[in-house]
Amino acid sequence: MNARIEELEKRLESKHHKDLFLQMKHTLQAVDDLAEEHRRYQAVQALSGVRIVGSEESVYFDTLNQVKELIVHTLEMTIEDLEHKGDKRYEKNFKDGVE
Q: CA within 20 to 30 Å of 46's CA: 9, 27, 55, 89, which one?
């Protein structure tokens, strides 16, 4: 995913939309922070004797990874719309526009 993020950053710099990249980066960091907070909470729970269900933890972290993937994919679609702005033959991903 890091290579995709670097490629997106380069594409956005050429379009002068670095703010979109920074917003995505901050959102991904917030998801990572949430995952770390959850890990710490589960560690405290385990130390206090609460049984941790591994399958539920797996689903939780899989869901967070899916959310991160969706955020990156949405930015990719946004960049595509920006790059094809004014192209009458291009079918937009976002009908309401990207500006």
A: 27
Helices (H), the chain: 2-14, 18-47, 54-83
Residue type, 52: I
Rounded Cα distance, 65 and 32, in Å? 9
Q: How does pLDDT run across 66-91, given as a tens digit for each residue?
A: 999 999 999 889 888 888 888 788 88
Which helix (H) or strand (E) element contains residue 94?
A: none
Going from the C-alpha of 10 to that of each of 17, 28, 41, 79, 80, the distances in angstroms are: 10, 18, 37, 11, 13
Residue with tokens 């539920």: 56
| Token pair of 56 as six digits | 């539920």
Amino acid at 18: K
Banded pLDDT at 93 (limits 50, 70, 90): confident
